[in-house]
Amino acid sequence: MLKRWIGVAIGVGLLAMMSPTWPLDSEGADATACDPNAKLANLNFTVKDMNGKDVVFSAHKGKVILLDFWATWCGPCKVEIPGFVDLYTRYGPRGFVVLGVSVDDPVSKLKPYAAQLKMNYPVLIGNGRDDVQKAFGPMWGLPTSFLIGRDGKICKKHTGFATKEQFEREIKALL
Questions:
Q1: Which CATH number does the domain housing residue 95 bear?
Q2: Is residue 75 part of a domain?
Q3: 11: helix, coil or strand?
Q4: pLDDT tens-digit readout, 42-63
Q5: Is 155 a catalytic residue?
Q6: Active site residue: 34, 47, 71, 74, which one?
Q7: Total number of domains constituting the chain
Q8: 26 with 162: CB under 8 angstroms?
Q9: 9 lies in some domain
Q10: Mean of pLDDT values over 122-145
Q11: Is there a domain that residue 8 lies in?
């Protein structure tokens, strides 16, 4: 009997991983606008981008922010990034910004990686910035992305891969 349950558990796990929208955690996965009781994001951070420029999170208040924690070694991160490039190009003029926080890669790896993926949004150095990660709560995997509304509230959280279409629905609901 135990072998049967182990087999069922493995099968369910494999099916979940094969699903194109498999998030480990997706708070508020529907496309509705932000919950009025959502937690305010801590935007009181200044982080260096891969070119050494300071990026002040609070300078983006009033915009819809996609804050993406990722790493160059993360396969699902690499799959999501081209979608973020497209979404930033399309919705940036309407008040949308992507801030990509690389959690553990040195600048020497980030620059060629960003060039290869044509990353057109700020690529931030999160290595050694545990304070930024902790401010957004526990992260159980990468990528972990937060959609922050114009009012500074954390409206959506995705841990694991989410499709470009899902992000687009959520962004459009907040714009």
A1: 3.40.30.10
A2: yes
A3: helix
A4: 999 999 999 999 999 999 999 9
A5: no
A6: 74
A7: 1
A8: yes
A9: no
A10: 93
A11: no
